[in-house]
Write a structure and sequence with these properties.
The chain has 295 residues and is mostly helical. The chain is 82% helix and 0% strand.
């Protein structure tokens, strides 16, 4: 089999697995944080629970698929030709061990999720539950940085990736819960209590992730403009710019009209647009992590 034909499918499928993994990670971790600190009553609602279940499945499936497809990419073989021996060989290197640890962390995340589904608000407001969920979240986000470009750049880059991912999760995961859980209820008290707090959190998250992302992009790509990495980065930044504009519209609406609004339809449309754009940005991030900064 031609080597280029063998490697390209592995890279394409790995990019898809990364997108699924990133989406699940952001929605699950951001969603649980939203319920724990901004809207504990939502832990008893059906829609947020359903969102977290789907997010957990995406994260777990994306991680397992990522491990197998990474083995195919490293071994330079087609995905369907991956053997148990190939996977074992990858597990013997730090990169593979990070993927394995990530998969095990998703198992533990499932335990946290089951407890939340069973006890609802009591779990979300419980200190032991929050500590356990926070420890697992840290592990999932930390291993995400260990399976990308950051390990080649030293501890500071890994710290920047961790901060970047925390901010993205809080922003985008919160958006998803806001869209699927808070807004459909149209409860005025809930809206006036939860939305301003999330708006403040989102603003801080955007500021942090912009700074961390700019630092990482400069360190990984420098001032090169003729590489695949640079071109994908331009697409990602363009999508992020539109996403930021939608976010600013949402925040202005919250600041100026939430207290007296008779309908939240404009805000809901803006949040829906933000969520779609956020998933598109995650897709660009999945392409970035499988692209070489030097090519």
């Amino acid at each position: 089999m031609n080597l280029a034909l063998a490697v390209d499918p592995a890279r394409s499928w790995l990019t898809l697995a990364r997108l699924v993994d990133y989406t699940g990670t952001v929605l699950f971790l951001g969603g649980t944080a939203f319920l724990a600190f901004l809207w504990p009553d939502g832990a008893g609602e059906r829609r947020p629970k359903r969102l977290l279940v789907v997010a957990w499945l995406l994260g777990a499936v994306g991680t397992v698929a990522g491990l197998v497809l990474t083995a195919a990419w490293i071994a330079r073989t087609a995905p369907q030709d991956v053997t148990t021996g190939t996977v074992r060989a990858v597990l013997d290197i730090p990169f593979g061990r990070a993927w394995t640890a990530r998969a095990l962390l998703w198992v533990l995340a499932g335990v946290v999720l089951v407890d939340l589904l069973r006890r609802g608000r009591a779990a979300a407001t419980s200190l032991p539950w929050r500590v356990g969920a926070g420890a697992i979240a840290f592990g999932v986000l930390r291993t995400s940085g260990m399976t990308g470009h950051a390990p080649d750049l030293g501890w500071w880059a890994q710290a920047a990736v961790l901060v970047h991912l925390v901010a993205v999760s809080l922003w985008v995961g919160g958006l998803a819960v806001l869209l699927t859980g808070v807004l459909p209820g149209r409860d005025p008290d809930t809206l006036r209590r939860v939305v301003p707090r999330y708006s403040t959190l989102a603003l801080g998250s955007v500021t942090v992730l912009t700074a961390a992302g700019a630092l990482l992009a400069w360190r990984l790509n420098g001032f090169q403009v003729a590489t695949d990495y640079a071109r994908i980065l331009v697409v990602k930044l363009s999508l992020f710019g539109v996403l930021l504009a939608a976010g600013l519209f949402s925040k202005r609406w919250v600041d100026r009209r939430l207290a007296t609004a008779t309908t939240v339809a404009p805000f809901a449309r803006s949040v829906a647009l933000e969520t779609v754009l956020a998933i598109a940005v995650l897709g660009a991030a999945a392409f970035l992590v499988t692209a070489s900064p030097g090519r």
